[in-house]
């Protein structure tokens, strides 16, 4: 597969000078194994170099997965460099934000959540597959966001445990997050994170409904399935372990 060769050839990504994607952490992250998302034999430094984020925190502290914003940017410039991304979001205001600070904050979140503007392998793969994903674009975005954010990965447990047609409440997300992060975040902040995660799972197609959210199955295309398999492989899984990994489980297939 040409795309896989391109991705695996870029294991030491360079960042544009204008990019602000965080550098490799100095110490092993607390959430290294992320409850089954990564194989235990993999080195965390390698995961970070591929583009995975392992530190707690991120965009879902204040925003959702920003699907609409991602679409606006990739529709304007399919493979933006760091400078092109800054120009689009800040100078040209392609996202139609009212203030300069809002534009800069959106730029920061897009870099943080998707690695846009950087040459990170998992980000390059997502961008390369984006035009081919069709109706599966929301799922492609979700997979990239899962690779980049611990809080969203944690929230997957609530969604994957809910059968299709059952109701999923923001309180379900809040309860799980409170159990794991009550010493780190206030209850008010945890409730906000829970709402943001629930919104992201709605944008991806796993949930339906504005207030009363019901579990549904997302649209999955061949490009989405290929990306999920790629992420699972880069996370250290192969064979039956890959098929049993969370990266494949979120496809609902």
Give a written overview of the molecule.
- This protein is mostly helical.
- It has one domain (40-249): fold of a uncharacterized protein from magnetospirillum magneticum (Orthogonal Bundle), CATH 1.10.3540.
- It is 54% helix and 2% strand.
- The chain has 13 helices and 2 strands, in the order H-H-H-H-H-H-H-H-H-H-E-E-H-H-H.
- The chain has a two-stranded antiparallel ribbon.
- It is globular, with a radius of gyration of 17 Å.
- The model is unreliable at 6-26 (pLDDT under 50).
Quote the CATH topology: fold of a uncharacterized protein from magnetospirillum magneticum
CATH superfamily: uncharacterized protein from magnetospirillum magneticum domain
Q: Can you tell me the residue ranges where pLDDT is under 50 for at least 5 consecutive residues?
A: 6-26
Beta strands, count: 2
**H/E topology pattern:** HHHHHHHHHHEEHHH
Give the helix level as a range of percent: 40-55%
Structural class estimated from helices and strands: mainly alpha
Largest sheet: 2 strands, antiparallel
Rg (C-alpha, Å)? 17 Å
Mean pLDDT across every amino acid position: 89
Number of domains: 1
Mind telling me the CATH class? Answer: Mainly Alpha
Q: Categorize the overall geometry.
A: globular
**Strand arrangement in the largest pleated sheet:** 1-2
Number of alpha- plus pi-helical segments: 13
The name of the CATH architecture is: Orthogonal Bundle
Task: Tell me the span between the first and last alpha carbons.
Answer: 22 Å
Name the beta content range. Answer: under 5%
